Amino acid sequence: MALLTLEGFSDEPLQDALELLTAAGFSADVEPAREIYVNRDLRMNAISWVGFDMDYTLALYHQDELDALSVRHTVDTLIEHFGYPEAIRAIKPEPDFAIRGVVVDRKLGNILKLDSHYYVGRAYHGFQPVARELKKAYQDERIRLSLDRYVLVDTLFALPEAFLYAAIIDHLERDGDGAALDYMQLYDHIRAAIDLAHADGRIKRDVLGDIPRYVRRDPELAQTLHKLRSAGKHLFLLTNSEWYYTSELMSYMLDGALSSYPTWRNYFDVVITTAKKPWFFRGDDPFLLLDELGRPLREEQNGFIRGHVYEGGNLNDFQRKLGLRGSEVLYVGDHIYGDMIRSKRDSAWRTCMVIQEMEGELQKRDTMRAELNAWYALDHELAALNSDLSAHRRVLERLDAAYGLGTLDTALGQKVERARRDLKRHLDLLGKRRRTALGRLIDLDLEIAANFNPFWGFLFKEGAEHSFFGGQVEDYACIYTSRVSNLRQYSPLRYFRARTQHMPHEL
Ligand code: IMP
Ligand code: MG
Questions:
Q1: C-alpha atoms less than 13 angstroms from C-alpha of 348 in its C-beta half-sphere
Q2: Residue 467, Cα to own-chain centre: how many angstroms?
Q3: 61 has which bridge partners?
């Protein structure tokens, strides 16, 4: 545990107080997995309203359990409604296979991981890596995600569909049943089946039947919300889930946690369910006031009544009713498109993205510290070699130019010629060292990435670049963190500062 200290500050009472606090177990450390990371400056004292999404934001799910449930319902529908063979029931979960940010190619039946420049770094057909020459075909053209050939997996709810797509292709083609597999249709069937399981309430019914199995109750959530409220922030809930589901999950997570809040609803000034994000940010649906059973009572024209619950609504009316400017709102969500992109594009809301995968990713970083340090050292060595090579090449170019002029007297000409030969030999040597270092770097990179995820490597990186997902997080989330309760470790008036960014020519 790091000692609480203030460098260069010799005020004695302060030092005493810090020592006492350290002895009492207060630490200056924030575990990396629980830190808040900053892409864009955010002054919390300029934020008066903090909004929360529910699913995968306030309510963190046990991913493997929820995925298995989704897969089970989807497989049932595929067999019963779309005539798929019973044999697909034998498909076993493969929790590592689907990650956020991968792209489904419905035309060729492949799943791709892109970097932030849309370059395909890895690709699978079923569970087999796509052959080199086929992968190359992707790399020769820019992937246009706007085409309906491609589907971006941008929410944790969508992981089962990416997994099942690969698993069914793998299963049917390996058994020889897949000769006439229509990849587009297969994806559409899976999408329709998952959509149905969500829409007809089967998934929600099972979750509500055994909430602890599916939902992780965060013991620090109540205190986190309380801390924000105590600092004068207003809180709101804005979820796409229906009232009946929202109320049960929120009760499970917050009721009884703090005696000053009799029920979860006391934490929030406004509660909006079935919000239809991303449409909420662009549309003009009215806010419907609901009764206690979640039945619509009437359209709400004016403000919101505290303690009541609403359905639907839209961004403009929300801000008008509350007399708010968009820049006063921080919205905390998990869905890159529904919560982050749309709220950024259509409003001035500031954004905090909850990325629950970060806990695992950062813990793995910790266990692989030695390998990562070796990687950074090699990367550094390569950068130095590259810069050496460029400097030597520049000199050689000058010597070549001087030699080519042919106006040099013989003695100087011979010296130039000798220098050119020496320099070329040295360049060969540097080139060899560079190739060796690069080879070692690539091997180490593969070893480290396989430890993070044997199929896809790092979530946030692809090769030397940000992964497509990492790029989107950087573009759309002002701040990001692994769970809502991490906010508790920071002052509600904190000025979150981004690191200064540099263009290559500025370094
Ligand atoms: P939020 O994250 O709280 O805004 O809500 C997510 C809601 O979307 C949950 O009620 C999910 O059940 C629902 N959902 C997630 N994926 C699908 C889908 O594919 N079809 C229909 N509803 C979905
Ligand atoms: Mg969500």
A1: 10
A2: 10
A3: 215
Q: Is the pLDDT of residue 5 over 70?
A: no
Cα separation, 496 vs 356, in Å, equals 20
d(CA 53, CA 271): 10
Banded model confidence at residue 217, pLDDT cuts 50, 70, 90 = very high
Q: How far is the CA of 91 from the centre of ligand 2 (A)?
A: 27
Residue 408 is predicted with a pLDDT of: 63
Q: What is the DSSP string of 243-268?
A: HHHHHHHHHHHHTTSSTT-SSGGGG-
Q: What is the dihedral of CA 350, 356, 360, 363, to 10 degrees?
A: 40
Q: How far is the centre of ligand 1, averaged over its atoms, from the C-alpha of 240 (Å)?
A: 6
Residue 457 DSSP label: -
490 by Cβ neighbours in 10 Å (0-12 / 13-18 / 19+) ranks as: middle
| Mean predicted confidence (pLDDT) in 442-455 | 91
CB atoms within 10 A of CB 146: 6
Between the CA of 339 and the centroid of ligand 2 the distance, in Å, is 7
Residue owning the nearest CA to atom 15 of ligand 1: 157
For the CA of 339, the closest atom of ligand 1 is: 4
Q: Give dist(CA 429, CA 423) in Å, integer.
A: 10
* Confidence check: pLDDT of 10 > 70: no
Distance (angstroms) between ligand 1 centre and the Cα of 208 equals 15
Task: Measure the CA angle with vertex 337, ends 332 and 340; round to 5°.
Answer: 30
Among the bound ligands, the one closest to the CA of 238: 1
Q: pLDDT category, 1, cuts 50, 70, 90?
A: very low
Global pTM?
0.90
Q: Which ligand is nearest to the CA of 57?
A: 2
Give the model's pLDDT for residue 406: 66
**CA-CA-CA-CA torsion for 158, 163, 166, 172, nearest 10 degrees?**
-120
E-state strands within 127-179: 128-129, 150-152
Place of tokens 């034998």: 90
User: Where residue 400 falls among pLDDT bands split at 50, 70, 90?
Assistant: confident
Taking the C-alpha atoms of residue 160 and residue 246, their distance in angstroms, rounded to an integer, is: 22
Residue 371 confidence (pLDDT)? 94
61, 74, 198, 279: residue to mutate for ligand 1 pocket, most atoms within 8 A of CB: 198
Q: Which of 3-17, 99-113, 341-355, 382-396 has the lowest mean pLDDT?
A: 3-17
Task: Give pLDDT tens digits for 73-115.
Answer: 999 999 999 999 999 999 988 889 999 999 999 999 999 999 9
Ligand 1 centre to CA of 241 (Å) is 6
* pLDDT, tens digit (0-9, with 9 covering 90-100), for 269-310: 999 999 999 999 999 999 999 998 899 999 988 889 988 999
Is residue 24 helix, strand or coil?
Answer: coil
Q: Which residues line ligand 1 (CB under 6 A)?
A: 53-56, 157, 194-195, 198-199, 239-241, 277, 335
Q: Residues 330, 100, 61, 450: is their CA dihedral positive or negative?
A: negative
